[in-house]
Structures are given as C-alpha cells and as structure tokens.
Design brief:
By secondary structure, the protein is of the alpha/beta class. Helices cover about 35% and strands about 20% of the residues. It is built from 16 helices and 19 strands. The strands form 5 sheets. It has a 7-stranded parallel sheet with strand order 3-2-1-4-5-6-11, sandwiched between helices. The N terminus is likely disordered. This is NAD(P)-dependent oxidoreductase. Pfam families: DUF2867, NAD_binding_10.
Length: about 525
C-alpha cells in the first residue's frame, strides 16, 4: 500500500532545467558539467547528438537533436526550460556569416518567447562603443541586441580574450610565443585588452541563471588585469619559462595578412584567425563591472592573467583538456557521415584497402592505433604528411597543427590533425573523416581484426594468397581503408593524382604500425 503525503507536506523542488546550445564547442562543452554541479537538469541541444557520445557527462543529461535554425525543433527543445544558453556563432563560416547569425538569433529568441523560457543567457564579444567594429564583433553585438529585444529576460555577457587550455585565443598566444622568439607583428599588439579566465566565464554563465526577472541587459566581463597583447605574450613566455621575446611591430600587416601569418604559425586556421585578428584591431577593456552587484567576485578574487596561464599549461601538461577550439567542426569542412551505399556518390566511390599481420596481441595493436597522429605522426612518409598539411593550411584548412586533445585516447568528435573522429569502437575500430580542403569527401578507417575468416568475409576481394591470408585464426591484423567520394572532374583528377603515393603513405603506415605494436608487445 502506497502512502500519500499529508496536504501541505514539504516537497523536494524539482531542479531547474537548463538548455544549452553549442555543446560541441569550447565553452558549451565546459558549461554543461558546471551546470550539473550547480544542481541543474541539463538538456543538451545538438544537430547530431551522436557527437556527444564520448563526453563524460553524456549519460547525465538529456540529449536532444535540434537545429537552432529550425523553429519547430527549437519549440520542442525549449519546452519547460527555465534558462536557455545561446552559445552559437558562425565564426569563420563564410562571407554570409552575419546574415546567418542574425537569422539564428531571431529564430531562437522567438522560440524562447513562445516556450516561455525564464531567461536567455548569451556570451558575446567585448567591444568599444562609438567606433566602426570588425564584422565579427559587430555581428556578436547585433546577436545580443536581437536576443535582448526578444521579450525574454536576457543576460548578455561581453568578454574579450578568454584564457583557458584549448581556447582559440589562448592557442594563438601560446604558439606565437613558443615558436617565434623574434617576431614582426601588426600594430594591434600594442592595443590594450582585458583577458578573462575561462573558469570565471563559466562562473558568470552559471550564476546568470539566478538574475532577477527585471534584469535584462549587457554586462562587460573581464579579469583583473589590463595589458597589451604584446605584454600578454611576454607574460606567457615568463610563465612558461621561455626567454623574453623580441617583438617588432610593423605597419604593413593588414588583418588579412596577419590572419595568414597566424594560420601558418599556430594551429588556428586562417578562416578562424581572421575574425579573431580583426577583433584585436580594437581595444577591448571593460567599461563597467556592474555584474559584480549580481554575481559577486569570489573571496579569492578573479583569476589574473599569470594564474590563468599557469592553470591552462597545467591542464595541457596533465592531459586534462576537456574541450578545445577545434571541438566544434571546422566551418566549411565536410560533415556528411560515411555513406553505406557506394552508389551514393553517383557511381564513383574509390577505396584503397590494406591489411597486415601483426606480431602482437589485439589490445597492444589498438593502443598504437589509438595514439596515432599529433606529435607521434602517422607512421609513414612524414615529409608527405607535412607537405599535405602545409598545402591545406595555405588553402585555409586546419593542416596538421590541431594535433590531438589527448595523447592516448580518442573519443567521438575529437579533432585529430586534419581529421575528425566520426566513429569509434574501443579496442576494435576508429573511423576518421577528413576536414582538409578536398574536392570531395574522404574517410580513413583503422581497424583491429583477430580472425582470418572474419577478415576474409569483410574484404574478400583483397584476401588473396600470401602470408596474410595463410596466417590462420587467432592472429592479429591491422586493417585500413581509405575512402574517397569525388566532387566532379576535379575530384576524379585528385584521386588519380594521389593514388600513386598510396603505396608509400598507406603501405608505410601498415608496416610501421605493425612494427611499433610488435616492439611494445615484446619489449
């Protein structure tokens, strides 16, 4: 028999529901666990929730498939939501990014109003007033204004450079400083900025949910230190134990040239570096600190620049970078999943398939496969990979400099040099989707097989005679497939122009991965 609580008995209040967009991005991916720790229920909105499968918090949130540009999906996703975090922007997504940002913000604001969301929180960019802004900063400001006009109480937090392991701004500072002891720089290195640590950004975001309903406005947020960009690089050098850098400003480096220069020196592609560099043309210093009245500073104070750099470097050293600027897919990169039907590409779908017997247990081979890329490289003709990476950088792609989030483990949606992890079966298979600039779509599958019969069934056309086919059950195989779906004649020409090098690149990978696994297995 079930007892009924007496009338008027105290009931445990239901935790508030927070909806978070941009959860595959740098800030969104870090905000979710902070909201959970603060006692919120979290609804994570993503166009492809499968990309979140590897996140530690994936099982603790409600994953909802939602395209922010679709009002019908949004109305469902925002139903019953107390606070909605708008962390969407079209950074580096092409010439029409302003129109796209405008459309998405209006769609979101209308859906939030119709769903009677209690509050919208938006993270925008800090910018001066009374001056002509860069297109990127002007768009970020416009998005804030659209959300404020939506009829829903809105908090717009305006931040400048965010310092944290994996942020695009921090990566620019880090690589410019580490790789260039002497540098000629644009004039913007003398502009003042007010950086803020990512942990303070997250604290402001979480606490904004508690603002009174009558508060609907923008707030400038920044750390305790104001310094020039050049001083920021010198501070990084000091904290990282590097000699003082020689910085020589020159007047001839336009934002376009600066972004190409940044794209070549740092892992941040020119398409993302350009709006960041354009933003640095302005001094970004807080004009007010009114947020303190609603979100008091912590007892120990806001995190200063030196401490923020120390914390970021510690996380990088310890392999605890949970999200990076590359967590979000590179704008313009292919996002289609691997087609299961070869006819998908109109009859042209090219495959290069190889396998090798490995003198090592399956778990040892998997360990080598999972650690591929980044500073370890790709176990084959390194010059060819470097040249291909440089060509991609020059074309506006990510090249090889994004590296890896974690040196030893991969998860779905990780960026891996100019690839992205599309699928992973731990201990068995990883599928990488190319995000390099290509006249088509490409994938690379790396697989551990442990039985000759299974391998022959999966790839009967390449089993053939030889030691691999005759090895027998119980042996370990390293199998790989390179797949390419060409776009037009240019795609066809590309495939046939690189095919002669596959034996060197992919064949070398086969031999060297097998050799590395054998060395690990036998000491």
């Amino acid at each position: 028999m079930t007892s009924t609580p007496p009338t008027g008995a105290a009931r445990t209040p239901t935790p508030r529901l927070a909806a978070v967009t941009g959860v595959t991005g740098y800030v969104g991916g870090r905000l979710v666990p902070e909201l959970l720790a603060a006692g919120f229920r979290v609804r994570a909105l993503a166009r492809d929730p499968a990309r979140l499968a590897g996140r530690e918090w994936a099982d603790d949130v409600e994953l909802v498939r939602c395209d922010v540009g679709d009002p019908h999906e949004l109305s469902t996703a925002l139903e019953g939501v107390d606070v909605a975090y708008y962390l969407v922007h079209s950074l580096g997504s092409g010439r029409d990014f302003e129109a796209r940002d405008r459309h998405l913000a209006r769609t979101f604001g209308q859906a939030a109003r119709e769903a009677e969301v209690g509050r919208v929180v938006y993270l925008g960019g800090l910018a001066p007033s009374g001056v002509a802004l860069s297109r990127h900063l002007a768009s970020r400001r416009e998005v804030g204004e659209i959300l404020l006009a939506s009829g829903v109480p809105t908090t717009v937090l305006q931040a400048a450079v965010i310092l944290g392991s994996g942020s695009a701004s921090f990566e620019m500072v880090r690589y410019l400083t580490e790789r260039l002891p002497v540098m000629t720089t644009p004039r913007w290195v003398a502009n003042r900025i007010q950086p803020i640590a990512v942990r303070d950004v997250l604290r402001y975001l979480v606490s904004s949910a508690d603002m009174p309903a009558h508060v609907s406005r923008t707030f400038d947020v920044g750390g305790p230190d104001v310094l020039t960009y050049g001083e920021l690089m010198q501070t990084y050098a000091r904290v990282a134990g590097l000699p003082r850098r020689l910085i020589v400003p020159v007047p001839v480096l336009t934002p376009r040239l600066s972004s190409l220069w940044v794209g070549l020196v740092t892992p941040v592609p020119a398409g993302i570096a350009k709006p960041l560099v354009e933003s640095l043309e302005h001094e970004t210093v807080c004009r007010e600190h009114d947020v303190r009245a609603l979100v008091p500073d912590p007892p120990e104070g806001l995190v200063g620049v030196e401490r923020a750099i120390e914390l970021a470097l510690r996380r990088i050293h310890d392999g605890e970078v949970t999200t990076r600027w590359s967590s979000a897919a590179l704008p313009g990169a292919p996002s289609d999943p691997l087609p299961t039907d070869p006819d998908w590409s109109g009859g042209s779908f090219y495959v290069d398939e190889r396998r090798t017997v490995v003198d090592a247990p399956a778990d040892v081979l998997w360990g080598v496969i999972e650690e591929i890329g980044g500073h370890r490289g790709w176990y084959s003709w390194s010059l060819a990979w470097r040249v291909r990476g440089l060509m991609d950088r020059l074309a506006g792609g990510p090249g090889l400099r994004r590296g890896r989030r974690d040196e030893h483990h991969l998860r779905v949606d990780d960026a891996l040099d100019f690839w992205r992890v599309e699928a992973i079966e731990p201990g068995r298979r990883v599928l990488l989707r190319a995000e390099m600039r290509l006249p088509g779509l490409a994938w690379l599958e790396l697989r551990v097989d442990t039985a000759a019969e299974e391998l022959a069934e999966r790839t009967p056309d390449v089993a053939g005679p030889g030691p691999e086919a005759a090895a027998g059950p119980g042996r370990t195989y390293f199998a790989q497939r390179a797949l390419f779906s060409p776009h037009g004649l240019l795609g066809q020409l590309y495939w046939w122009s690189v095919k002669p090098f596959h034996g060197i690149v992919f064949g070398g990978m086969q031999r060297n991965v097998a050799a590395q696994a054998a060395r690990r297995a036998h000491g």
